[in-house]
């Protein structure tokens, strides 16, 4: 059986047509890069390290997957940074935000257990079980948990988007991008951010409600009160 021939796209034959094609391609590239450029501009002075981040009451750690019920190496690095900040008295409370959409998958509880094993008291950890994506986590931190200022902790390829979205959601934020091995996951994450930047820009413009909002929770306020007793 003969396969149907696939027609190759024809390039414009005229000089004007070719010029319009090049202009269209260039315009598409510029539009594709605008969201990433926006993120770099709005987060330019908001990135820090664990050594120089301003002392802040609350740190927010974003979920990054579980392996057999335990934090993935990427998530463990984020949690290690939060535990370090707590031990150095740079933060008082850790808000862990992640996915618990299935009964057999619970990022926040796994993050809590890891932090308690690394010296953070259980009473200083607050769990957000509906942090299904970065925008949801930022909006819920502000609207549900009453967080107005926070240190955000993630990998370098994600932290600018996290800071930009939390700033837009009303959380004054500094971001710590923890080190990560440049393996296949790192390159995948970096490539994914090019597309996620576009969604982030749409979220900032449209400001959709999180997938699950729910009532306000006093966890962060109570944890801060217990820290001062």
- Widest sheet: strand order? 1-8-7-2-5-6
Structural class: alpha/beta
**Low-pLDDT residue spans:** 25-32
Q: Number of DSSP strands?
A: 8
Mind describing the biggest β-sheet? 6 strands, parallel
Number of helices: 7
| Cα distance spanning the termini | 81 Å
What gyration radius follows from the Cα positions, in whole Å? Answer: 21 Å
Outline:
The chain is α/β, with parallel strands linked by helices and 229 residues long.
What does the model show?
The protein has 229 residues and is an alpha/beta fold. The chain contains 7 helices and 8 strands; from the N terminus they run H-E-E-E-E-H-E-H-E-H-E-H-E-H-H. The protein has a 6-stranded parallel β-sheet with strand order 1-8-7-2-5-6, sandwiched between helices. Helix 3 links the parallel strand 5 (93-97) and strand 6 (125-128). Helix 1 (15-42) crosses helix 6 and helix 5 (156-168) packs parallel to helix 6. It is globular and about 80 Å long. It starts with 14 loop residues before the first helix and ends with a helix.
């Amino acid at each position: 059986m003969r396969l149907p021939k696939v027609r190759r796209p024809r390039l414009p034959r005229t000089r004007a047509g070719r010029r319009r094609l090049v202009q269209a391609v260039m315009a598409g590239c510029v539009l594709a890069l605008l969201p990433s450029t926006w993120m770099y501009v709005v987060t330019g002075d908001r990135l820090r390290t664990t050594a120089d981040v301003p002392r802040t009451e609350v740190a927010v750690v974003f979920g990054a997957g579980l392996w057999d019920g335990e934090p993935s190496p990427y998530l463990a690095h984020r949690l290690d940074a939060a535990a370090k900040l707590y031990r150095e008295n740079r933060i008082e409370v850790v808000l862990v935000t992640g996915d618990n959409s299935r009964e057999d998958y619970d990022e926040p509880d796994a993050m809590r257990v890891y932090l308690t094993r690394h010296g953070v008291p259980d009473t200083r950890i607050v769990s957000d079980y509906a942090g299904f994506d970065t925008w949801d986590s930022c909006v819920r931190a502000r609207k549900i948990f009453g967080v107005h200022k926070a240190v955000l902790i993630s990998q370098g390829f994600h932290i600018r988007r996290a800071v930009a979205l939390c700033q837009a959601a009303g959380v004054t934020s500094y971001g710590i991008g923890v080190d990560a091995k440049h393996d296949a996951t790192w390159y995948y994450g970096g490539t994914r951010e090019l597309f996620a930047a576009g969604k982030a820009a749409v979220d900032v413009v449209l400001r959709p409600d999180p997938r699950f909002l729910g009532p306000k929770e006093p966890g962060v306020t109570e944890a801060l009160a217990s820290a001062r007793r």
